[in-house]
Design brief:
With 297 residues, the chain is α+β, with helices and mostly antiparallel strands. It contains five helices and 17 strands. The strands form five sheets. Strands 9-10-17-12-15 form a five-stranded antiparallel sheet, with no helix packed on it. It has a four-stranded antiparallel sheet with strand order 3-4-5-6. A four-stranded antiparallel sheet has the order 11-16-13-14, covered by helices on one side. 26% of the residues are buried. The mean pLDDT is 88.
């Protein structure tokens, strides 16, 4: 019996003579539906990490990312998946996302002068931080580029620049057409195509960064029985950290993520005062944090 063709992206099997399966130049097979999805996202029709992520089931995201890193050199993955953008960056900054975006603001808030074109030129005095406006009669849609780096989220437009801490990005919203930033005093809504891809790229970057900086050794510093400091790495619960509720203090807030035993992921944000580390889960750290165990529930 001939072996059935399997789509290497969604893993569905071909059925019938006109199943629409296509053999790619790299010898992978793709079904008609997955090919359509890739075109919708503007991705090349080839076998790659982001192609696999957008065509897979949501609950397979972490498995696909982890398997990819087990089979590829993280240095090459970082270079291939997160290349330098067309704009120059500050020293030490790494670009994670670069998306065309727009924000609707009050016309009167838009400066008349031209804004700088490169992130490397951005300094505090040049940041406007103009929030979104819902008053249509007095508002204007402004096109620009939304850049996420390992340090900040920037919106660069012709006449103004917004800059936000990554911790203010709302990551659990249901919409896939916007990136929302909520600070204590303002709200910013950036309209984009495929916000889900924005967060997939961010999530994968965190894993690649952890793989680069902590391949086999857990960099954990124990102060006493209930207080530890964690640096970039992946920590299994309860093998490395005991299960329970931890009070969090950020030293270098570049990312702290909890994946429970069911594969669900929750990101620590600046508004959180504690995190819940349950049995069978994993703590993934891409920054540096002090953790204080405060109880089991």
């Amino acid at each position: 019996m001939a072996k059935k063709k399997v789509c290497d992206f969604c893993l569905s099997e071909a059925s019938g003579l006109f199943s629409g399966f296509e053999r790619l130049s790299d010898n992978h097979y793709i079904c008609r539906n997955c090919k359509s999805i890739l075109k919708t996202y503007g991705l090349p029709v080839k076998y790659g990490i982001f192609q696999c992520l957008v065509t897979a089931q949501d609950n397979m995201t972490d498995t696909i990312m982890n398997t990819w890193l087990e089979n590829h050199d993280p240095v090459e993955v970082m270079n291939d998946c997160f290349p330098e953008p067309s704009v120059s960056m500050h020293e030490g900054e790494k670009c994670i996302n670069a998306f065309k975006a727009s924000i609707t603001v009050q016309k009167a808030d838009i400066p008349a002068e031209q804004a700088v074109r490169n992130i490397s030129e951005v300094k505090r005095s040049l940041i406007s931080d103009i929030p979104s406006s819902e008053t249509r009669s007095q508002s204007q849609k402004v096109e620009g580029m939304l850049y996420e780096t390992n340090v900040a989220l920037y919106f660069l437009s012709d006449h103004f620049i917004n800059c936000h801490r990554p911790g203010y990005i709302v990551k659990d919203g249901p919409d896939t057409d916007r990136i929302t930033v909520v600070t204590p005093k303002k709200q910013f809504v950036y309209m984009v195509d495929h916000a889900d891809m924005f967060f997939l790229r961010e999530r994968f970057y965190q894993k690649v960064y952890a793989a680069l900086h902590n391949k086999d050794t857990h960099l954990i510093y124990i102060r006493n029985e209930n207080e530890v400091t964690v640096t970039p790495g992946i920590y299994n619960i309860p093998n490395v950290l005991k299960a329970g509720i931890y009070e969090v203090t950020a030293i270098n807030n570049k990312g702290l993520h909890v994946r429970d035993a069911l594969g669900r992921v929750r990101d620590y944000t600046e508004s959180d005062v504690s995190i819940d580390l349950s049995d069978g889960g994993v703590l993934e750290c891409t920054g540096e944090y002090k953790l204080k165990w405060i109880g089991e529930k």
